[in-house]
Design a protein that fits this description.
108 residues, alpha+beta, 2 domains, two-stranded antiparallel ribbon, elongated
């Protein structure tokens, strides 16, 4: 029988967006558990703390299948337009919105 390894965690770990809810891991960032208190990676589900300000996380309305398809096809990850396979220039990949100059595909 495989026993879960002991990991260091804080009471707020289960409310962090990096929490794995896995008996073998506590966190996706700190695989061996917490080394210091407070955790510098703590990011509650409602948002992340940045310079003392809470940055709210966007609502995730996509299914796992849709998220995987996005990874397979979006220019941010592939470098190419999913409509016509146009190769975006490196500088174009830094855009927040993608519009293909070849076929007009947009990621909106």
């Amino acid at each position: 029988m495989i026993k879960p390894r002991a990991v260091h965690k804080l009471p707020q770990c289960p409310s962090c967006r990096f929490y794995c809810d896995n008996p073998f891991l506590s966190c996706e960032v700190l695989l061996d558990g917490l080394e210091q208190n407070p955790c510098i990676y703590y990011a509650p589900e409602i948002g992340a703390l940045y310079n003392g300000q809470v940055i709210k996380q966007p609502l995730q309305n996509r299914t796992i299948e849709e998220k995987l398809a996005l990874l397979d096809k979006h220019p941010l990850f592939t470098g190419a337009c999913p409509g016509c396979n146009y190769k975006f220039e490196r500088i174009e990949l830094l855009n927040q919105q993608y519009i293909c100059s070849n076929c007009g595909w947009s990621d909106e």
